[in-house]
Amino acid sequence: MTRLIVAIGLATTLAACASTGQVYTPKPFPMPGDKPNAPATPPPAPSSPGRPVPATEAADGYALSSTALSLRGAPYRNGGVDPSGFDCSGFVRYVFGQHGVSLPRETKEQFRVGKKVDLQRLEPGDLVFFTTVAPGASHVGIAIGGDQFIHAPSEKGVVRVENLRGQYWSKRFIGAKRVS
């Protein structure tokens, strides 16, 4: 009987928390200034769609990387374009849009913008492209420094950091572009 009362109390408490509309997005990596057990707060959505930014006014790669990293743990959603769920190109477009840079919606279209960058010269904020589900550019992420990039994959279901030199990604890498 005691177990039943405890279970009912726990279920009621959990239901009450769920009804507040608060969504907790886990942060897989601690960030400087994080408060223990604090929910992740994504950056605010842009008030208007991003606008093209001339190269002299381009967004800083470290700022782009910081915004992208703040979204770690956001769920994958096919066709997703905001922190409630992203696909790979929606994630990239959202991050750049937060810095006033307008990008096309589709991965293949994103592959056509910017200047080509050699893998050895990648900088934070560069776009990295892979061939995964279809020939040509079918997946995109954002370089964050070293051999790391961040993206919205479908396999594990959340925005996460990966290594470009990992076996899976290194075999599928097809190019990088610098937009900012």
Q: What would you say this structure looks like, in words?
A:
- It is built from 5 helices and 8 strands; from the N terminus they run H-H-E-E-H-H-E-E-E-E-E-H-E.
- The protein is an alpha+beta fold.
- It has a 6-stranded antiparallel beta sheet with strand order 3-8-4-5-6-7. The chain has a two-stranded antiparallel ribbon with strand order 1-2.
- What is the arithmetic mean of pLDDT? 76
Strand content: 15-25%
Order of helices and strands: HHEEHHEEEEEHE
How many helices?
5
Major beta sheet, strand line-up: 3-8-4-5-6-7
CATH fold name, please? endopeptidase fold (from Nostoc punctiforme)
Which ranges are low-confidence, i.e. pLDDT below 50, for 5 or more consecutive residues? 1-57
CATH class: Alpha Beta
The span between the termini is 63 Å
Summarize it.
It contains five helices and eight strands.
Structural features:
180 residues; 8 strands; 26% helix; 5 helices; six-stranded antiparallel β-sheet; globular; endopeptidase fold (from Nostoc punctiforme); alpha+beta; disordered N terminus
